[in-house]
Amino acid sequence: xxxxxxxxxxxxxxxxxxxxxxxxxxxxxxxxxxxxxxxxxxxxxxxxxxxxxxxxxxxxxxxxxxxxxxxxxxxxxxxxxxxxxxxxxxxxxxxxxxxxxxxxxxxxxxxxxxxxxxxxxxxxxxxxxxxxxxxxxxxxxxxxxxxxxxxxxxxxxxxxxxxxxxxxxxxxxxxxxxxxxxxxxxxxxxxxxxxxxxxxxxxxxxxxxxxxxxxxxxxxxxxxxxxxxxxxxxxxxxxxxxxxxxxxxxxxxxxxxxxxxxxxxxxxxxxxxxxxxxxxxxxxxxxxxxxxxxxxxxxxxxxxxxxxxxxxxxxxxxxxxxxxxxxxxxxxxxxxxxxxxxxxxxxxxxxxxxxxxxxxxxxxxxxxxxxxxxxxxxxxxxxxxxxxxxxxxxxxxxxxxxxxxxxxxxxxxxxxxxxxxxxxxxxxxxxxxxxxxxxxxxxxxxxxxxxxxxxxxxxxxxxxxxxxxxxxxxxxxxxxxxxxxxxxxxxxxxxxxxxxxxxxxxxxxxxxxxxxxxxxxxxxxxxxxxxxxxxxxxxxxxxxxxxxxxxxxx
Amino acid sequence: xxxxxxxxxxxxxxxxxxxxxxxxxxxxxxxxxxxxxxxxxxxxxxxxxxxxxxxxxxxxxxxxxxxxxxxxxxxxxxxxxxxxxxxxxxxxxxxxxxxxxxxxxxxxxxxxxxxxxxxxxxxxxxxxxxxxxxxxxxxxxxxxxxxxxxxxxxxxxxxxxxxxxxxxxxxxxxxxxxxxxxxxxxxxxxxxxxxxxxxxxxxxxxxxxxxxxxxxxxxxxxxxxxxxxxxxxxxxxxxxxxxxxxxxxxxxxxxxxxxxxxxxxxxxxxxxxxxxxxxxxxxxxxxxxxxxxxxxxxxxxxxxxxxxxxxxxxxxxxxxxxxxxxxxxxxxxxxxxxxxxxxxxxxxxxxxxxxxxxxxxxxxxxxxxxxxxxxxxxxxxxxxxxxxxxxxxxxxxxxxxxxxxxxxxxxxxxxxxxxxxxxxxxxxxxxxxxxxxxxxxxxxxxxxxxxxxxxxxxxxxxxxxxxxxxxxxxxxxxxxx
Amino acid sequence: xxxxxxxxxxxxxxxxxxxxxxxxxxxxxxxxxxxxxxxxxxxxxxxxxxxxxxxxxxxxxxxxxxxxxxxxxxxxxxxxxxxxxxxxxxxxxxxxxxxxxxxxxxxxxxxxxxxxxxxxxxxxxxxxxxxxxxxxxxxxxxxxxxxxxxxxxxxxxxxxxxxxxxxxxxxxxxxxxxxxxxxxxxxxxxxxxxxxxxxxxxxxxxxxxxxxxxxxxxxxxxxxxxxxxxxxxxxxxxxxxxxxxxxxxxxxxxxxxxxxxxxxxxxxxxxxxxxxxxxxxx
Lengths: 554, 481, 282
What we know:
The structure holds 3 protein chains of 3 kinds. Chain A is an alpha+beta fold.
């Protein structure tokens, strides 16, 4: 696992590590100084982004003048200290420590002579319930224990193995726990207590029975846990896993992007395999960051985006009233033909608040040129036209709607548009509205993991969105569809030609983006679709939180 | 008002409205919508009620076709359905899957010049059966008093259902043993939803259950019970074997076992019976090829190709050894396939399937064929052209070149004769060489049609009744004794 | 029907005792059943490890190794399985061989038991060798001891019997000159291959029970085809037992991993609450 890379700073004091003089600031631990100067010291319980407790003792070093060995993660650096991080003797001690740790962790596979062929055979690892060896462990490809075994060249574990025989804990939403793999390093507890201040978990029981758990051993969903999964991110073993994305092994690619499920715009790494989103997690070095990720971005994306129900091909309504699949050229021609029959005041455009900046800008440009700037959005099921003061009058003028969030419409809201003749839907899933006989076209579009772009988030941060997976079928990004229709309608006033022309315009007119407000943190939907409809565990999470806390905090 | 023959001749054949190809090739809903009552009446009026009734003899189960069509013309749809049901217990199925162009419609007087002018018997049959079912007009048939005799039917496909339906009405206690977890045999695992909606099969089966037919699912005869056990242990008086052919053939060429090479049976069973097109809601996975080659030219090949395109394949090609005219598929199916942009690579056959290091299909090496002398079936024999090899790019191969006899039952019933291909030998009435064991359908004839299997079932039911009535004097003790 | 009457877990191997009297009456050693947990499930083959004609039950040892077995593992006593079809496959060929060695790992520890019993009844000297990572992962031991002349162990950590695998025990026996007339192996593909390679130099007749992907289990679909001695065989009807020295292991391995992607993706929408997101609503 990569360590936190900090800038090399010139400290005010100096000490000697492995014969080299190194500067440091007072208050640094030996481990911190060593890391900064590029000296590797093996650790299990210590992480640069967590307070140290010195429990695993793997980071022991020899300090001249000190009796025995010091745990470098907790020993403060002092001026003129002479530190040795590595020697045959230290290695031997560390091997002994690791052997003891592994005697309570199912690790027969680690030293098995046929491990290599077995793991090749079980690649990715077999999807087991109870893990009794590496070839069935979901964490195998990123296991820190294995890395240490290799680093220390451990060939044999001399102690008899003691299996703790805790029951599997898999009754919580999203999270599977097998504390038989736990080495009691306490990282999960520290990230939860110290970094996030949640204290959902702590050490419970005594002696050999000691384990991590909630108070009264309740389900996590009934306690303080918010399912940010930082405990999973810092766990060096496979004890804690996210159920929906634990079996794909090492991903084909990891793409940093921004989660735009809400205004927070968290930085997120998307694991991709088989061209699909397999999981999402914080940048590995930052996994113990001081704010918790929410369960929506951390756990819901694969099921939400990989549903086989995603719209895949554009479809248009034929003269005989039947909806048919078609290609993009025909679909765009068909729709622009229909739109051209209407005067701008008869057209209105719905912008989903989940759209990227480019898509919002393109829609706004479309509305400006072809729809008298009749662009609106939904807020708490209410329709809001930000550019128009008295929006009530507009409803009877509108004859055609161009919607990017069809599922937010109820029968009543659609009835408010009394003279409606046509609906164009541009969406990710079919909705009840897409069966309406007023719909003249349905365009499949991409979710944010399938496109490049930017999104303006809270505090006016403009975050980057990077494509991590392939869209289903022939789906293309919203902005692309919008400018295709815009250009097909052929007004010289419509100036958006490509991604770049949109981007340069956004920079000139940022207020156009902010006219469509951001999605609040507590949103339970994506583009009008309840996340729980696609992610059953999310329903359990929401219901559990409402029951135990009366509110949901993301 | 009675129409004159001339007026009848003047009416043009009515096609059924259909889902347009570019819509239906992405969904699994049925392709034709069926007649409206008006269309049905108009089509029925095209029948000349000729004296010869060639259609009746053209039908393997001799449905009184002119009689039911005349009732349709009089808008007596439910009565028409009842007339069909005297001969055919599954009209909603047969109206959809029978090769009418080689049966009733093939010999229709009106189709003499052009087969496309024949009275649309199949469409009408389908219409009345659907009308009866959708309006709950089915009459519970008269059931004779129980005669105390038990018959076991192995397999719940078309022939088994026919035997069960006939015998239950005659007063027998009928038990069907079905290997799968759902009844209907090839009607549920083989024929896709878009050609035969499963709810039709389900309603036919539940109608039989209402009549008292018992169905044991998950019961593989030959393993769970041997045929002899059905008599000796379970006390059946007769056994009917209607298990279908049930053993797929693969081409004897290298590369057969690469991932992505499927028997049509497997591919269709995954999609139809296991509903893998609804994965992951249904847990059976399916491999969705981009470029799919379907080997064969029969109905099953068409079904496989049309399933592949619906599952999301970019390009589906039927690779067939002979020419289009020799294709055994129902004309409507080949036509539908073509409409759905399935390509035909005729007079070609693979000689090798290529794969990559991970064991997945990457393509085929094919050879061109030309038509030579007619063979014993009368079809021109395809002859390979020397040095005419070409490579064919594909990532999935669906092998649909027919089947063989599944030996599960015949192996465990050694005293029942089979022919050299392993099919069960029977007389014209379905009697096997083993006493009171009968057989019919594909396990006797090899791959054939739904209706011919039903015809065989009908004959066997008669034979069972005749034989058991003869025997019963000696074997059945009357209740009052 | 198919009610789960007993259930317990030994380290990821779930013992499931299922009410299926007809199967219990007709099954023979070496046969398997095809199981569906619920109406939406896959059909998966599972070896029957024991049966009782008095209670009308069959015993399966189910190794949780994917979604279908996870759903079985989460079932509780009193629940009913949607479908149990069987017995399927050809029974083991049991005759008086002389000395028979049975090797089992994972679910194979349970699966060799009926073969051991049948071989013993046919007059053989029966030696079972079972492997696990740790001593505490063995199960069904008492029954196995009762059915065998000798039970040998192999563990990865050496905590019971020989440190190593079944093939290490066999190799040791063969090197010592123990006469083995017939070997049967049941376990994961890799173990079967290793064990077959161990008996090959000594020309010991070796049967391995292959567990390829199946659908109907009656020879109808060909999903389970395997190459044995250059010929394509259907594991469901021609097998499951084949000559271990003739199996094309690489092909079997590749065919078994054909659905890795789907088998992984299916976890994304899985919920322990049992709710399955509806598909095909449009």
